[in-house]
Design brief:
This protein has helices at residues 8-11, 39-44, 71-82, 97-111, 140-150, 155-159, 161-180, 206-210, 232-246; strands spanning 12-13, 24-28, 50-54, 90-95, 118-122, 193-198, 220-225. By secondary structure, it is α/β, with parallel strands linked by helices. GO terms for molecular function: hydrolase activity.
């Protein structure tokens, strides 16, 4: 799926537009997630950086577009869309599937000569630590159960059949992309990597997150918060501050 320059507005959401911002923070959603999840990040970073929240096809106002079932293909598209926005220092933040997308986007941007200030992978195993997960192959009921167990989707959606029908296609395609993603060996990033996880996350262990260090020569840190896969809901302020700390003064 190619990306036209005229489609950039569909992909990049600027909740607090700031053309003269000294830096930008690119936020990449989790499976089934959308750009609006990062509105609080944008609000908090006003005056420090402009947030570019990425809206994948297949959800919300893009629900009639074909969604991606491949992380590398999605990363190709995101990297192409970001090209005009890399004229100042930028940080990549991705949660869960978004962390894998962020890693692959960083690889592509570095190859093109644009090195991020930092990559923040959240709630995700290191690229070389893929798990054998097959939720995407199960029926709708099993998919819904899996999502509920992670406590990352508004429970009201599951009680509204119409809403559920709207989000299920994006969930399934995203789970397909996330679960079939396999790292292709290559040079490590020059970008510093700062991983964040929850200590009770069933999707990633401390050991699996620590291996993110193997994918960069630019420095590494791992921060473990209390909570599950969506520890972010309780610790957003800490994670946003960590991002702010690496931004140019």
């Amino acid at each position: 799926m190619s990306v036209k320059e005229s489609d950039a507005g569909l992909w990049v959401r600027r909740f607090h537009q700031w053309d003269s911002a000294p830096a930008r923070v690119v936020c990449l959603p989790h499976a089934g997630g959308s750009a609006s999840y990062f509105l609080p990040v944008s609000k908090t970073l006003v005056g420090k950086a402009e947030v570019l929240a990425i809206q994948y096809p297949g959800r919300q106002d893009r629900r009639h577009e074909k969604a991606f079932t491949s992380v590398p293909a999605l990363a190709d598209a995101v990297a192409a869309v970001l090209a005009p926005w890399l004229d100042r220092p930028f940080v990549l933040f991705g949660h869960s599937m978004g962390a894998s997308v962020g890693f692959e986007v960083a690889r592509r941007l570095e190859a093109a000569g644009s090195v991020p200030v930092a990559l923040f992978p959240s709630g995700r195993v290191a690229p070389s630590r893929a798990r054998d997960e097959r939720v995407h192959l199960q029926d709708d009921a099993a998919l819904i159960r899996a999502v509920k167990e992670l406590s990352g989707t508004d429970s009201q959606i599951f009680a509204d059949e119409e809403l559920l029908r709207m989000v299920l296609p994006a969930l399934r395609t995203d789970y397909t992309a996330a679960e079939t993603y396999r790292w292709e060996p290559g040079p490590p990033l020059a970008t510093p990597v700062h991983a964040h996880i929850g200590d009770r996350d069933p999707k990633v262990s401390v050991d699996e997150a620590r291996d993110w260090e193997k994918h960069t020569t630019g420095g590494f840190s791992l921060t473990v918060h209390s909570g599950g896969h969506f520890y972010l809901d309780q610790h957003a302020a800490k994670v946003i501050q960590a991002i702010a700390d690496v931004l140019p003064a």
